[in-house]
Amino acid sequence: MFENAFNSIDRELRNEEGLASELDYAEQTSWILFLKYLDDIETERQDEAELEGRDYAPTLPADMRWKSWASAKNDDGTDRKDVLTGEDLIAFVNTTLFPTLKKYREDATSPDTIEYKIGEIFSEITNKFRSGYSLRDVLEIVDGLEFNTQEAKHELSDLYESRIKRMGNAGRNGGEYYTPRPLIRAMLKVIDPQIGETVYDGACGSAGFLVEAYTHMLTPDISATDFNTLQTKTFYGQEKKSLAYIIAIMNMILHGITAPNILRTNTLNENVMDIQEKDRHDVILANPPFGSGERAEVQQNFPIKSGEMAYLFIQHFIRKLKAGGRAAVVIKNTFLSNGDAAALRRELLETCDLHTVLDCPAKVFQGAGVKTVVLFFEKGRKTHRTWYYALDPERSLGKSSPLRDDELAEFVELQKTRADSAKSWTVERGDIDAETMDMSVKNPFAPEEAPLREPAEIIEDMLARDAETAEILAQIRGML
Question: Which residues are in the DNA methylase adenine-specific domain (predicted)?
Answer without folding.
Answer: 152-449
